[in-house]
Amino acid sequence: MISRRLVIRLLGAAVIAFALSPTPVTLAFSPEARNAKLDETLRGLVEGRSTPGIAVLILQNGRPIYSRSVGVREVGSAELIGENEMFRLASMTKAVTSVAAMILIEQGKIGLDDPVSRFLPEFANLRVRGPDGTEGPASRPPTIRELLTIPPGSPITSSIIPGSLMHTAKRA
User: Residue 96: left (phi > 0), alpha (psi -120 to 50), or beta?
Assistant: First the structure.
């Protein structure tokens, strides 16, 4: 099974490859020079043990302009990674946002227990539904910590409206 770390590294390599690809307006490299630079970068990542293997496909205007695979499928494996490998991808939005929030917390710009409404005024007067189905004001605005962890019973999860997709999923 392919690890999460491998998928993250593959996505990172794809971002690097994308950043190195030329724009339609001006070519930073000739296609041959670009491909050679990408090949060198990918080999360096694998040989430097940053990742066991990388598969990259770059499209421009819907057409492939670069396609390579370098390295092995898993650490300790001799099985080469192929250009047609299947990878499990997951949403990284919450992870990236959480890291960004923790950087701001380390810098003292925000606090875990700050109300979200301090930064997003729309969260100041949330309305929630209680267990009996009646709607009313939230007892307090949600905190940054609650947005990052989404604990049960928080103003965020308490506001699930009966009959909604989230309500149905919660009951299942």
Answer: alpha
